[in-house]
């Protein structure tokens, strides 16, 4: 016989499992417009997102920076009885932007026993068979040296690919080479070696090596990561990112004029996440990223505040920074008859880029000086005077004037998002539009687990329902290198190492939501559902589609009676895309990248009234034909 307490518990569970909700949807009654720009990307140099990540450069510390320990990530190579040393040289370099080079001094070497230096890459250099790698370096020599460049296996002295530069001259010159692999194994356990075969001195700077890149763009991006980003159907890119825009100190901000032009003229700068940015991802590269993925740029301009509480007072002190922002907008949008438009043309992109949104600063609510209102007003007036059609985004609420858009940021646990999906339901529709420029459910490391994906999906239903005022949103951070030492912030949407990448459950939730979205919300009511059940309903009138997002964050299946009204004709078959796990902790990893991925099926017997069950811990999209 069951004890009374246990019997009561079982009855409650059974009742919960058998509870049926009713969802009424009237496809003939639009409620509000859905922003066509709702889902986009936000990124910054964190977690080795650019260097060692999206930016495809394979050489780490290509500009030969050094500290007390030596030239970072570069080491001496001595074969046989050869003898050599390396040291930073602050007296010579190929450009004013790069303050020093590395000096290789070889006192003993011959063709059978060469000596030189090697680079370990970003946790290894990935090599694939029958692949062409393009490289270059700046060098000068006191002895007309021949320089051999090789890709070498870490575990055995096996040369995978090789090129030889002959008669390196006494003045700085750029040397280019190609390394072509043969029928080798795919591996990240490789390094780059540069050697000479006789005594002499050679100076090196800006040593670079690129694999094939997305769309074969020079100075371009990793193919696998760009393909994952493209699958998210992003409508915009917020660039160059949050803290990365500000820097810890004013002189460490993203100084865009130092990130354009030839790589040899880019001085690099310290990231606020405590490593040096190569600035290979400069302003033009960000804009071409937008072009390649058919996104619009959301350009964030430095507004006079840096993270260590350094700020520039409004007024004459701020004028140079305002002018710098105007110059930056001109670089993006100006024709060849403008000063900075002409610079963009010189940099290789004749056509202006489209620009609709400019964000003034980043997270200025942390500025304890209280100077943002004045700083924002000064930027706003100057930019609107020259570019009246631009929409200007404030990073916090402004009391004395009305911004076009306000940027909201949310980093939360899943329960907080579950409890706040109505956050924008009662927002003043006559107020500024909202850009949710950074947000994430922070559970799971280095990438989110399924519980985080449920929190994200629940929050997205609220943004979709209110996308007449929430016009843009972007998850952050976007990327993380999962190697030891690569992580500064958890949780991150996409993980990778030198050779491969994977999407987290939250990534796939983003893909699903952005792939199935209409242009207006429709009237709907839900009754009888459990407390952790969320939904949104949008339609695309032109395509004759109803997109129904269903999120069951409970472990108990949710039965639903779906009542579809207002449609003259309803397709009897619908597409069901489902993301499901058995626990909140379930996730994907670099070694098991596809444990949780969307599954697409067809469901039958769809009609004006039909029954559907959403399993526990599930995110679903129903794609239904309604005419």
Structural overview:
With 627 residues, the protein is an alpha/beta fold. The chain folds into 2 domains: 39-56 and 214-515, TIM Barrel (Alpha-Beta Barrel), CATH 3.20.20; 66-210, Galactose-binding domain-like (Jelly Rolls, Sandwich). It is built from 10 helices and 36 strands. The chain is globular and about 85 Å long.
What is the overall silhouette? globular
What class do helices, strands and sheet pairing give?
Answer: alpha/beta
Number of domains: 2
What's the CATH class label of the largest domain?
A: Alpha Beta
Helix segment count?
Answer: 10
Poorly predicted parts? 1-16
User: What share of residues is helical?
Assistant: 10-25%
Strand percent estimate: 25-35%
Overall number of strands: 36
Mean residue pLDDT: 96
Radius of gyration: 28 Å
Query: What CATH architecture of the largest domain would you give?
Result: Alpha-Beta Barrel
* Spatial strand order of the main sheet: 34-33-36-31-30-29-1-32-35
CATH superfamily of the largest domain: Glycosidases
CATH topology of the largest domain: TIM Barrel
Give the biggest sheet: 9 strands, mixed
N- and C-termini, Cα separation? 56 Å
């Amino acid at each position: 016989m069951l004890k009374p307490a246990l019997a009561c518990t079982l009855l409650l569970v059974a009742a919960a499992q058998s509870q049926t909700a009713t969802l009424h949807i009237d496809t003939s009654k639009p409620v509000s417009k859905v922003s066509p720009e709702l889902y986009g990307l936000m990124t910054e140099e964190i977690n080795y997102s650019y260097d060692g990540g999206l930016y495809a450069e394979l050489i780490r510390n290509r500009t030969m920076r050094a500290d007390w320990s030596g030239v970072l990530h570069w080491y001496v190579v001595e074969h046989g009885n050869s003898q050599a040393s390396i040291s930073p040289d602050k007296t010579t370099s190929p450009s004013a932007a790069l303050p020093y080079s590395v000096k290789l001094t070889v006192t003993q070497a011959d063709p059978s026993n060469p000596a030189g230096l090697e680079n370990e890459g970003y946790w290894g250099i990935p090599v694939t068979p029958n692949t062409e790698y393009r490289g270059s370096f700046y060098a000068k020599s006191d002895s007309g040296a021949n320089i051999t460049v090789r890709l070498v296996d870490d575990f055995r002295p096996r040369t995978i690919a090789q090129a030889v530069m002959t008669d390196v001259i006494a003045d700085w010159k750029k040397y280019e080479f190609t390394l072509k692999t043969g029928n080798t194994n795919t591996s990240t356990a490789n390094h780059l070696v540069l050697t000479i075969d006789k005594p002499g001195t050679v100076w090196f700077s800006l040593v670079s090596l690129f694999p094939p890149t997305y769309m074969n763009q020079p100075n371009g991006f990793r193919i696998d990561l760009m393909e994952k980003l493209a699958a998210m159907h992003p409508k915009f890119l917020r660039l160059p990112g949050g803290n990365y825009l500000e820097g810890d100190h004013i002189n460490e901000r993203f100084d865009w004029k130092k990130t354009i032009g030839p790589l040899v003229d880019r001085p690099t700068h310290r990231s606020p996440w405590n490593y040096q940015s190569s600035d290979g991802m400069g302003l033009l590269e960000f804009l071409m990223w937008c072009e390649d993925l058919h996104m619009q740029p959301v350009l964030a301009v430095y507004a006079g505040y840096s993270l260590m509480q350094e700020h520039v007072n409004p007024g004459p002190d701020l004028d140079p920074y305002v002018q710098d922002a105007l110059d930056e907008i001109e670089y993006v949008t100006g024709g060849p008859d403008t000063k900075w438009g002409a610079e963009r043309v010189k940099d290789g992109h004749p056509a202006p880029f489209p620009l609709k949104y400019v964000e003034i600063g980043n997270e200025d609510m942390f500025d304890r000086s209280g100077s943002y209102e004045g700083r924002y007003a000064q930027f706003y007036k100057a930019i609107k005077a020259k570019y009246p059609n631009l929409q200007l985004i404030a990073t916090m609420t402004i009391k004395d004037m009305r911004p076009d858009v306000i940027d909201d940021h949310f980093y939360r646990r899943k329960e907080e998002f579950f409890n706040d999906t109505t956050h924008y339901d009662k927002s003043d529709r006559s107020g500024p539009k909202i850009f949710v420029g950074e947000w994430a459910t922070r559970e799971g490391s280095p990438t989110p687990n399924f519980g985080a994906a449920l929190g994200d999906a629940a929050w997205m239903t609220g943004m979709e329902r209110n996308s007449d005022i929430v016009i843009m949103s972007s998850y952050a951070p976007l990327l993380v290198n999962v190697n030891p030492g690569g992580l500064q912030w958890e949780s991150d949407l996409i993980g990778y190492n030198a050779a491969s990448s994977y999407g987290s459950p939250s990534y796939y939730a983003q893909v699903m939501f952005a792939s199935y979205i209409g242009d207006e919300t429709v009237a709907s009511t839900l009754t009888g559902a459990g407390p952790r059940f969320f939904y949104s309903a949008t339609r695309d009138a032109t395509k004759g589609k109803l997109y129904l997002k269903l999120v069951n964050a409970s472990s108990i299946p949710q039965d639903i009676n779906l009542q579809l009204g207002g449609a003259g004709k309803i397709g009897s078959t619908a597409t069901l895309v489902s993301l499901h796990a058995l626990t909140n902790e379930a996730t994907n990893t670099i070694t098991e990248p596809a444990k949780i991925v969307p599954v697409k099926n067809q469901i039958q017997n769809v009609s004006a009234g039909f029954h559907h069950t959403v399993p526990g811990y599930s995110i679903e999209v129903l794609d239904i034909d309604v005419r």
